């Protein structure tokens, strides 16, 4: 079965329209003011308004204050939360929404331990470890560090591109893939042709 596809870091309604038309299952909105893809509430609503029904909306945070998550949940039609910082399992679960926990992978990181710790997560998102960054770097990591016995679904992320995603899907067989930099024309600006090629790559890798 083809993994689910999330395209993250959208800032423009036209990119949301393209992502949905091309076959994305979910889009991600970044609520992290240190990111070049950060959106405010008005921009987030405009992106969501451009989506057809049945495309999931994921809100990404990095070590947010509880009040900030509550504010976004009250103002924006979010389906899933994604946490990229040092949030505890209790904090992540406390919003009573499905959530994904990102783990920055490098040698020595035990994803089974992480999955056990965040067992109430809807999925574990494996991203590349880059010193000083929380994500969205376009860096890949060694996919052999991913065990095949994870007790919760794996979302593969980190430096995926139209050129490497088919190979990634073939090797890792993730439940979903997540991409930001690899389908961009510039920070926060998606490229429709790269999104098309990425989604085709996911399909090719699943055959
Ligand atoms: O996109 C960002 O700017 C970002 C900032 C802080 C944390 C996570 C961020 N993005 C997520 O990072 C991964 C990998 O992105 P990339 O494809 O390597 O650019 C992905 O989950 C993004 O959603």
UniProtKB/TrEMBL annotation:
Instruction: Report the record's Gene Ontology biological process terms.
Output: L-tryptophan biosynthetic process
Provide the GO MF annotations for this entry: phosphoribosylanthranilate isomerase activity
Q: Which SUPFAM superfamilies match?
A: Ribulose-phoshate binding barrel (SSF51366)
Q: In which pathway does it act?
A: Amino-acid biosynthesis; L-tryptophan biosynthesis; L-tryptophan from chorismate: step 3/5
Q: What is its EC number?
A: 5.3.1.24
Question: Pfam families of this UniProt entry?
Answer: PRAI
Q: Where is the N-(5'phosphoribosyl) anthranilate isomerase (PRAI) domain?
A: 5-200
* InterPro entries reported for this sequence: Aldolase_TIM, PRAI_dom, RibuloseP-bd_barrel, TrpF_fam
User: Any idea which UniProt keywords this protein has?
Assistant: Amino-acid biosynthesis, Aromatic amino acid biosynthesis, Isomerase, Tryptophan biosynthesis
Q: Does the keyword Amino-acid biosynthesis apply?
A: yes
Q: What class of enzyme is it?
A: isomerase
Q: From what superkingdom does this record's organism come?
A: Bacteria
As its record notes, the protein acts as a catalyst of: N-(5-phospho-beta-D-ribosyl)anthranilate = 1-(2-carboxyphenylamino)-1-deoxy-D-ribulose 5-phosphate
UniProt lists the family membership as follows: Belongs to the TrpF family.
Name used for this protein in its record: N-(5'-phosphoribosyl)anthranilate isomerase
Q: Which organism is it from?
A: Crenobacter luteus
Gene behind this protein: trpF
């Amino acid at each position: 079965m083809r993994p689910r596809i999330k395209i993250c870091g959208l800032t423009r309604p036209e990119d949301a329209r393209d992502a949905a038309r091309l076959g994305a299952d979910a889009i991600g909105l970044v609520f992290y003011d240190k990111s070049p893809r950060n959106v405010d509430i008005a921009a987030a609503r405009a992106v969501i308004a451009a989506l057809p029904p049945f495309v999931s909306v994921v809100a990404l945070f990095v070590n947010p204050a509880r009040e900030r998550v509550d504010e976004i949940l009250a103002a924006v039609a979010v389906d899933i939360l994604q946490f990229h910082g040092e949030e505890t399992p209790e904090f992540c679960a406390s919003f009573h929404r499905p959530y994904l926990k990102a783990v920055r992978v490098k040698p020595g990181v035990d994803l089974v331990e992480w999955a056990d710790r965040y067992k109430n997560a809807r999925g574990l998102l494996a991203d590349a470890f880059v010193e000083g960054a929380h994500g969205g770097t376009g860096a890949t990591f060694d996919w052999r560090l991913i065990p095949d016995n994870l007790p919760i679904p794996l979302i593969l992320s980190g430096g995926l591109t139209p050129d490497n995603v088919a190979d990634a899907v073939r090797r890792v067989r993730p439940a979903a893939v997540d991409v930001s930099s690899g389908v961009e024309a510039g920070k926060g600006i998606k490229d429709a042709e790269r999104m098309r090629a990425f989604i085709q790559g996911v399909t090719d890798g699943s055959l």
